[in-house]
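=== RUN LOG ===
request id: a7f3
mode: sequence -> structure
chains: 1
length: 375
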Amino acid sequence: MTRRHRTALLCSIGAVLVPGLAAVVSCCRSAPHPAPNRWGGPLVPAPLVSRGRTVASRPPGGEVVVDGVYRTSASWAGGHPTPAQPSWVAIKLGRCCSRILVSWTSSGNHDYRDLFYGAPVDYRIEVSSDSRDGEGGTWKTAVSVVDNPVRTRAHAVDFEGMRWVRMVVARLPERVNEWGLFLDEIDVHDLSDGGNDVWMFFGDSITSEVFDRGPNHRPAFADAIAERHRGYYPATIGAGTGSFHHPDAVRTLDAALAVNPDVHVVALCFGSNDWDSAAFRRDLENVASRVRASGRIAIVPRVPFRSDAKTDFAAGLAQAVDAVNASLSLLPGPDLYTWFRAHPERLADGLHPDDAGSLEMIRLWTEAAAPLYGP
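=== RESULT ===
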């Protein structure tokens, strides 16, 4: 019996024994999952449960990983861990969930496969039911990672009967900054009711910058969804890479999905570095089809207008996106071409949005994603 079914049963019994109790406990009852719409929504919520929780760490300072602040100097500095003397940060969740998604971020790195500025290479995720302080007690390894290749990723973990979750880092890349490990945030989402509101923004340098969740780009996509759709707070993986072209998407998609198997929605955000609309359409259709074949939702925006090009290649690329969306019956992403063509002043260098343009892009994404969410 799932937690949702247990809660529904207890609420039903309480309503019979105590008249009026159903109204009191309705806030704790998970509503039945509605039938899917044509786009694959509504998604099942995966609420964020780690923000502001009690944290312990070695070395100290780990409380910043639950403060909701990304991409600043206020990151946890974990030093130079080794297998003999690992660094660790533990979060006390209590008996909140039967299954969780642990999503960590090392945002000092720009590209998805950059590790130099503090990303771990060997680490494990542990859980404990009896620890009192995040260090002692009995710990069980739920996930073990060797040779991690990326700056952020997420892991689903069974948490039935547990109270603490801990990330233990044993090794950094051979080429690393002089200060060592830096983690700016560890988000934990509740998957107990089958939550699948987990996104990957897969694309180019614009993707990397706009979806970095830095202070100048807040409200971020997850914040904006939470404000518009009660009960939701999506987990997001920013998988952007500079100088990214459509053949790179074909080549790297499977690896990106392999390190994040719990991602359910893949935003395919590339094209701004491309010019051949026919080749772009071929590769975009290839990638979007593979996303769908894996049981996930693909969503593709119209490629943004760029003001620094003598030829408006983005117009043909936007038409290619329309053709792929129609051919595969995909939920259309935001029309970034039309918006930035009307607002070229929001392009800092003719290609990348400035901070105000980034916030507009996030707004447009939030509006386009609405059919994937409940009312």
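=== NOTES ===
Residues 1-32 form one domain.
The chain has three domains: 1-32, 54-190, 198-372.
=== END ===
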